[in-house]
Structure formats: structure tokens, C-alpha cells
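Q: My labmate handed me this sequence with no annotations at all. I'd like to see what the chain might look like in three dimensions before we decide whether it's worth expressing. Could you predict it?
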Amino acid sequence: MRDFLKDNLKILSHKSPELCSLIKNAPNDNQYNITTSKSGIASLSIISPDGTKKSLHSKYDPKQEAAQFIDSIYSDESSNYILIGLGLGYHLNDLHKRVSSQDRIIIFEKNPTLVRLAFSQNNFSEALSNPGVSIHINPDPSKIEQILYEDRTNLAIHGYTPIDLKPLVNLERDYYKLINLAIKQAHQKFKLDINTQAAYSQKFYKNIFNNGLAITKSPGIVATKDIFPSIPIIIVSAGPSLDKNIGLIKSVREQILVITVATALKPLLRNGIKPDFVISIDPNEDTIKSFDIKAIPEDLWLIYDPCIPPEICSLFNKRKIMMDSKIELAKWITDHSEKKGTLGNISSVAHAAYYLAQHMGCAPIILVGQDLSFEGHRMHCTDSFYNQANQDNIGADRTLGVLEYNKYRGYTQSITPTVDIFGHKSKTTKAMETYRHQLIKEINETGRILNATEGGVSIPGAINISLKEAIIKHCQKNKLPIVNNYLKKIKLPTKNTSLLDSIRKQLVKFDKIKNSIKKIEDNYLVDNKKLIDERKFVLEMEYFYVDLLKDKTTTAIMQGYDYMAFVEWSQQTKRINNTASKPLASDHIQKKNLRDRVFIIRLSKTIDFLTHGFKNLENQLC
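A: Here is what I predict for the chain of 622 residues:
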């Protein structure tokens, strides 16, 4: 029987020398036994310590077994497959013969020895040569999100089909359970991020352009690295449990730093508590209501993502510090001026506050108001603008309870059951559950956190403690630095002329794209009564796409603005490609024509907006 190991490793070495070396040097494991099936190809069994054998593949025909297995799972509608357990890889080869060149196959296998056996027994040359196939050996479950990150958009839009090789997975049940859970959590987070991007992409860009001058003049959080080492800090979120212990924060205010999320700013100020930092990352205009107060305390500092409404930035004069944003336009501006520093993969404003506390070196970090669940039908504390909006609408037939319930019902599609820290049944949302998992992961990786929320769901890894006890143990003998004195020493950015040059060069690129679009529109779309050659139009659009994709940066900026246009184009293209080889494939030119006629109009509007925005930014900087 031929040994394919050398050939497979040679192909893999071009993709991943490290993975190739890991497989090549994998130790022998006598518990795995290769036998010849009745069909004449290799089968695999495992020998237990008592000498009994358990088959992991068919004794008769492993290849046919794999084909039947994939038959039960494969669908033209699927484009991403995650294989859990490789075995000898018969199912991988069968699946790979069926998928298109645009499809993705991701393999997770715990045991490098098994991969070595598979590489010896099967020819994986086609699969290994495909850039859409990747293999990960014995990954840490906590790193799954990082592994899948490059595929986040694809996974969020198109989903994935899990393929568990059960006889193998059952041998390492606990490990693969963690892998599957991590994949589900990562996928949920990617969907949440993509939904946010789809809903707010144009608002992100509008706010970032309007914050252009503030971006160039704000120092970055990089300047706050380890600025307050071992100083205790309270992170205040706006969950309903904040009502229980908000008064205690005031009693210890002189011995502790306080970061608040924007939604909790009003409740703190109305209770006579002035935080040191308020953090804001939300682009929605409702965020402005959190700052609808008589006067911003003169020693309060704003930590912000540049996608927030510009009205918030304008309230803080020079008392604002910016973090790098993951929005493409903001990344472009800081790439061509000055990097501000990142707080990591932020899912919510509470995460941003937590990362900031870590970044500044604070310890211990004490969480309050971090319910991550409903209290009855209420999600926010008293005096938050959400709660205030309900109170303002109270009427004869609209009690506070009724208004809260109506708001709660708006989350119906995403509500999931949970259990609070007291063991009582409660409700949360898919988004809050994702935030919780992200927080758990970060806490487990970074160390001791005190959860003094006194309500809401448990956050494994954080120590549940009452705020009173946390204060007694950690906040009595601290010599708190004067925050303003530290932050005023941070140097402001110097005027950057290279940003102006970059803006002007980018405007030239936009102008070139606009001219290309206009030429296509003039030839095919201006006269609606004129019959056009659909095939020629589609071909010219394909040439246009190829040329556009040569400039990845500009394409990313465009995609970041009208995110849904690109998502819809991708989804339609996937459907067209999936039907191209079927009887109905004769009409795929017409489908591409309809797809591209809509898309080119969206692209034209995108270029107009970006051109206008970049010119305004140029004028702000001149």
C-alpha cells in the first residue's frame, strides 16, 4: 500500500512549515491500529488498555461509509464546513470533491499522530493545495475565535455546517465539546459584529468624518499604558442592580478610580458621584442623551471610539482620549496620521471599560451594574436615559411596568433563558450572552476580577462579592493620584501634513473609480429603452471588479460604508455560482446582470459620499 506522507507534507510545507514539522515529528502511538478493510483500503481502529479493539472506520469500505456520511450533510446552500476530527480523512476527500472553489473547509483535530496516519494512508494533494482548506492541530479552545477571525465575515453571513466524526470525537469528548462550544460562541459574536456593522455602517462613517478634527487632535490611549499601577478601580455599568449599591461608591470615591459607561453617567452624577473617565463607543444618536446634563464635570475625561456622535466629542474640549477603531475609515485616518492604541477586540462598552482598566494597570478591577440580564422586564438602572424615557411616558393607561414590558417585548426574538447568581431563573439576550462569554474569556486569561454587581448572571472567573466587602478589603488605605495631573501631562499630537497628502491621493483614486463607473453607466444604464448586451455588461463589470480589487485599501473603505451592498452582492453571487452547473444555469448571465445593475448604483453613491467626506476632512485640516 502506497505511503502518501512525503507528498502530502511537501504540499503542506508551502502553506504552513510549522504545521508540517508538527505532523512530521508526531510520535508513534500504539493505541491506533491500521488494518486493511474488505474493500482493500486502510481502516482505523483503537486498542484500549485491556486489549479490546474499537473500529473508527468501516471494516468493509471506509470510502463508501464516508460518502454516505457526507451525503447526509452536504448541501449546495452551504459554503463553510467545519470538520471536527480527521480520522484517516476519507470524509475530507469526499467533501472536497463536492464543494466549489469559493467554499471553505476548516479542520480541527486534536492528535497530530492521527493526522500523520491520515497523511500516510490517503492522498490529500487536492485538498491541501486548495487555499480554502485549513487544518488546525490540538488548538487551545480559548483561541478558536482568533483562529476563525479571518473568516468572520464569511461565517457570519453564510453560517457553517459542522461535521463531527463521532467515533473519533467520542474518544476526546470533553476536548471536542469545548471546541464546538468555542466555535458556536465565536460564530455568535461574528454575527453580532456583522449585524452591528450592517445596521450602522453609514452612521459610523458620517460620525467619523464629523469627528475628523478631533481624531487628529486627540491623544491616544497608548499614552495611558500602566499609568495607574495597582490602583483599585470600579467599572460602573448601567444594569438594574446598580440601584442597590450606587450609594456605596460615593462613600469611597476618594480612595478609588471610577470608569463609567456612558449610560451610567447620569445616574452617577445624580447621586453626587463624579467619575474619572466616561467611555463611549456607540454611534447611535441616543447616546447623546447620556450626556444631557447641565455641565460636564471639568475633571471628567472622555475615552472614545471615533464613531460616536460628534456632539459628544465637542463637550470635552481637550479632555478626551481616543482608542483605535476597527471601522475601516477610522483605521485609514490613523494609519496615515497617528496610531492611538487599541483596547483589543471590543464587543460592548463594558468590555472597553474593562480593557481600559487593565491597560492602565489598575488592580483590583471591581465590576458593578454588570447584570447582563433582565431584572423582571428591566434592563437598565434608575436615572439612565432608557429608564427616564419610560418614566416620561407614564400615563393613566401606561404604568412604568407596562412600558418596561413593552420595551422587553422588543427583544423577543433574541431572548434566552438563564440563571442569576442566586440560582433563580432569569432572562438575557443573545447579545448579552455573547458579551458575557467574551468577558469570561478575558477574565480567565488575565486574572483576578471582583464582580460586585450583586445581581444579574454569574461571570465565571470573576469573584462574586458584595460591593461593601470589596470596599472594606481593597479600598480603605489607597493613596489615590490626582487623575487630572497625570492626564494633563499627555502630549497632544503634532500637526501632521502627511495626512493631507494622503487625503488628496485618495481623492484621486475615488475620482478614477467614479469615471470608470460613469463610463459603464453611460454605455449600459443611461437609456432604459435601449436594449443592452447583458453578457458584455456583465463582462465589463467583472473587469471593473478585478481592477477595483487591486487596491485593497480603497475597496475596504468602500465596503465599510455601504456594508449591506457588498453583503447582498456576495450572497447573490454565491447563489448564482451554486446553480451555474445545473439546468437553470443558462440564466445566470441574466441574474448577474440584475445583480450588477443594482450594485453599480450603490457603488456610485458610495463614491459620491466618500469623495464629499474626504474633501470636508481636507478642509477641516487646512
